[in-house]
Write a structure and sequence with these properties.
The protein is an all-alpha fold. It has 25 helices and two strands. This is DUF4173 domain-containing protein.
Length: 493
């Protein structure tokens, strides 16, 4: 038998329960050492991988070496964005990776990757109901059993010796002044700091999250009644019958054609707009409503083109759906162009970057819907592919230094540097954090006498230098910025 096929991490139920208790206790202590009262940084990456290793050690079923290594690699890759800088997107990706590791250790991962998003959804939906289940009741029953063996049994065996030892020590202190003086000299103030309410709350939160990962569960599927399913199917056939779909698609394609021709003329063709309206106003008023329109169109297509429905069997309806999806994709591209025109006139913000990414994701999702119809795939395949695209987009956004990108764009397109656009918004650059310092340095090269920019730059520099020097708070983004600042200071000298 090869090493890759050798089963590992196999344990009996009782020993596995004790192992989970010990791993939970050790991880809570490790979290206190790494995370409590510390700035987030490298400590999040280290703790996430420690949790992944602990989950594999407490595996419910025997795992082969290759599967255990794959799950550990999944947790490692998912936590890499936390090295760049702690962000909500990076934490979300890391939690998704740890959820996959937990499901894999519990033997709950599906064999087909297309079912993974629904399994993760069932895992998340099961979380609110877990505290109200009978797990705590079973633990209390185990504690009451005199035949129970393991960690709890040994801990209970220490109650009597420690109680009598404390009593004897108090008697000895009363009888021996040396012992009394030694006991009085012991400083126990650190225990008060250790047992602060914030610290205990932190322990409880970490223990609650870890207990969910150590004992994964999935929300049970509800069986649909056959009669209810027949009613739903009949309603869908009535609302989305062949005639209704054909008429809807003809009307929708005509309406979208008008909007598409207007965009082709004014956005892509550069035609002159009516008096009193600029291209920026035309772009800004249409970007976000058109995205809602595309989303509603996607929902309509998914409902109308369900497998085996009236729309799926008609060649004419399928052709009109293909044409409508193509117009929706062009609509998304027009929305991106609208946003680009608006940003060129005004400035770039994090919300506008998020809007551009969202528009691109909607266009890709519509393309996936078209592929699903052409390839005759299931909605499960569509959800899995769309979820994978969304996860990769979040991963890239968590790694990229978006504040630095925004600062460089706004400085380069400001009225002071380019002669066009709007005046540089220093308050917004200050809100972006120390990542904006290189862009401000570029500004000061062209206009070194601007005192307001230098004041903002000095404030951001103090914020960067005020970071904790502890290795647990280290981030690659901050270290990279420190290296750039040291290099610029050496060149200046």
């Amino acid at each position: 038998m090869s090493i890759s096929d050798a089963p590992i991490l196999h344990a009996k139920p009782t020993s596995n329960s004790n192992r989970k208790f010990l791993i939970l206790f050790a991880l809570v202590i490790f979290a206190d050492f790494l995370l409590f009262d510390r700035e987030p940084g490298l400590n999040l990456f280290v703790f996430a991988n420690a949790v992944a290793a602990g989950l594999l050690i407490c595996s419910r079923k025997s795992l082969s070496f290759s599967k255990a290594a794959g799950l550990l690699l999944c947790g490692l890759i998912a936590s890499v964005p936390l090295i760049e800088t702690p962000s909500w997107m990076g934490i979300t990706i890391c939690l998704l990776g740890l959820s996959c590791v937990s499901l894999g250790a519990g033997g709950l991962l599906p064999r087909q990757w297309t079912r993974l998003p629904l399994v993760l959804l069932r895992f998340v939906l099961d979380l609110p109901a877990r505290p109200f289940r009978r797990v705590s009741y079973r633990w209390l029953q185990r504690l009451q059993k005199p035949s129970a063996r393991g960690v709890r049994h040994h801990l209970r065996g220490w109650i009597m010796p420690l109680t009598f030892a404390a009593g004897f020590l108090a008697l000895f202190a009363a009888a021996n002044p040396l012992i009394d003086r030694t006991l009085r000299s012991i400083d126990l103030t650190f225990l008060l700091q250790l047992l602060s309410m914030w610290r205990i709350g932190f322990w409880l939160v970490v223990a609650a999250v870890l207990s969910v990962l150590l004992r994964p569960g999935l929300m049970r599927r509800r069986r649909h009644r056959r009669g209810a399913a027949e009613v739903v199917t009949s309603v869908e056939d009535g609302l989305f019958g062949h005639a209704a779909l054909l008429r809807s698609l003809i009307v929708f394609n005509a309406l979208f054609a008008v909007q598409t021709l207007l965009d082709l003329a004014y956005l892509w063709g550069g035609a002159s707009l009516p008096d009193g309206m600029s291209h920026a106003e035309y772009a800004h008023r249409g970007a976000y409503p058109l995205m809602v329109t595309a989303l509603l169109a996607a929902i309509f297509v998914l409902v109308a083109m369900r497998p085996g429905g009236p729309g799926d069997k008609s060649v004419l309806v399928r052709g009109l759906v293909h044409l409508w999806i193509a117009q929706n994709i062009l609509l998304c591209l027009s929305s991106i162009l609208r946003l680009d025109l608006y940003v060129e006139v005004y400035s770039l913000t994090e919300l506008r970057v998020a809007a551009g990414i969202w528009m691109g994701l909607v266009a890709v999702g519509l393309f996936f819907i078209l592929l699903r119809i052409l390839l005759r795939r299931s909605n499960e395949w569509l959800i899995a592919l769309s979820s994978a695209t969304l996860a990769m987009t979040l991963y890239a956004a968590a790694v990229a230094d978006i504040p630095a990108l925004i600062a460089r764009f706004n400085v380069a397109h400001s009225r002071e540097i380019s002669g066009e656009g709007i005046v540089l918004d220093l308050d917004y650059l200050a809100a972006l954090g120390p990542s904006a310092i290189p862009a401000l340095d570029t500004y000061l090269v062209s206009l070194p006498a601007d005192s307001d920019v230098r004041r903002v730059r000095d404030a951001l520099l103090r914020q960067q230098e005020g970071r904790s020097p502890d290795w647990r708070s280290w981030t690659y983004r901050a270290a990279r910025l420190d290296d750039d600042l040291r290099h610029e200071a050496a060149l200046a000298r």
